[in-house]
């Protein structure tokens, strides 16, 4: 497996606002430091200065970092992966045009066969270049409404950490960018490499969910102290035949109250939430073990191999066997064939 080259778009020499430094540092950390004990050929990272004017702004009075790089927009063409982490704030908040030099460079890179990736508001640049038309995409939840309004051809999903649409990938803001970058490592170099790299970075390797080609956060964004513990309790018992009544009883709520509060916290129903968790568990087992699909189905709470296949095809878009082949793994002993 080959890691390939990564071209990371950076603003012109006027500087990088402090708020954007975190997202810019993520791909530098993931792709910029060789890991010879994990892979013989790591990524070749290039920081490419693109755009003549990024809103005319510098750092908006905040502490920032000025970058100097020998690489320019022409270096995006020929890269295996192109990542854009942000656009000027004015492009998001005031509807200012995305720098045309950036838009043109992204189009040329895509036409040349590059895998296109955005973190946070970088999705606005991909959308302006027409690369998200007819695709599902995401961005930071604070900006998804503007993205959907400005680019109606894009199917914007504000509930996910990232969206993998094959040759075009988008992520939500801040730490979700790390989820996506680790996902790219997993795609390119396999689950073992991605898991070890995540361990070194002291972060989860794979925050799984239950939808095809993207991952939802399974942690509800809620201050409801009565809900979090029961969801953790359920995650630890996914192989058990859990019902909504079981969860409600554990939360000391009526089933109707539990349904209402879980829906308010996660945007989904209890049965749907359980299915997402079980599919996520099955994905992790398929990636990291050689267990037969019958055992994966049992441990994830999906019951039978046929039920596992049914839900995988319906919600993930591929069979368990095809999913396992898409995520190479390294386990002790000979792998068991997925059926």
Automatic annotation (TrEMBL):
The keyword Signal does not apply. GO terms for molecular function: DNA-binding transcription factor activity; sequence-specific DNA binding. PROSITE patterns: HTH_ARAC_FAMILY_1, HTH_ARAC_FAMILY_2. Pfam families: DJ-1_PfpI, HTH_18. Gene3D superfamilies: 3.40.50.880, Homeodomain-like. Keywords: DNA-binding, Transcription, Transcription regulation. InterPro entries: Class_I_gatase-like, DJ-1/PfpI, Homeodomain-like_sf, HTH_AraC, HTH_AraC-typ_CS, INH-QAR. Residues 228-326 form the HTH araC/xylS-type domain. This is Transcriptional regulator. It comes from Streptomyces inusitatus.
């Amino acid at each position: 497996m080959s890691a390939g080259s990564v071209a990371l778009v950076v603003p012109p020499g006027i500087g990088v606002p402090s708020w954007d430094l975190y997202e810019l540092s993520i791909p530098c950390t993931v792709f910029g430091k060789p890991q010879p004990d994990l892979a013989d050929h790591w990524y070749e990272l290039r920081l490419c200065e693109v755009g003549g004017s990024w809103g005319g702004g510098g750092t908006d009075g905040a502490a920032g970092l000025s970058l100097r790089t020998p690489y320019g927009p022409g270096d995006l063409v020929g890269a295996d992966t192109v990542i854009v982490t942000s656009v000027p704030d004015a492009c998001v908040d005031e509807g200012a045009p995305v720098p045309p030099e950036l838009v043109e460079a992204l189009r040329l890179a895509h036409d040349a066969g590059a895998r296109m990736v955005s973190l946070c508001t970088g999705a606005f640049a991909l959308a302006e270049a027409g690369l998200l038309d007819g695709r599902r995409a995401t961005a930071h939840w604070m900006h998804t409404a503007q993205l959907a309004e400005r680019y109606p051809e894009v199917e914007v999903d504000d509930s996910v950490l990232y969206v993998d649409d094959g040759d075009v990938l988008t992520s939500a803001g801040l730490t979700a960018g790390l989820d996506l970058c680790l996902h790219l490592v997993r795609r390119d170099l396999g689950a073992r490499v991605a898991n070890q790299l995540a361990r070194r970075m002291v972060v989860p390797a794979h925050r799984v969910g239950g939808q095809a080609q993207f991952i939802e956060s399974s942690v509800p964004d809620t201050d409801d102290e009565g809900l979090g513990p029961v969801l953790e309790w359920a995650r630890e018992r996914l192989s058990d035949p859990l019902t909504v009544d079981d969860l409600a009883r554990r939360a000391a709520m009526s089933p109707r109250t539990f349904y209402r509060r879980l829906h308010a916290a996660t945007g989904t129903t209890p049965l749907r939430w359980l299915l997402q968790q079980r599919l996520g568990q099955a994905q992790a087992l398929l990636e990291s073990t050689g267990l037969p699909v019958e055992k994966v189905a049992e441990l994830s709470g999906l019951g039978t191999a046929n039920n596992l296949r049914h839900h995988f095809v319906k919600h993930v878009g591929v069979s368990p066997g095809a999913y396992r082949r898409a995520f190479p793994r390294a386990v002790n002993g000979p792998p068991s064939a997925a059926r």
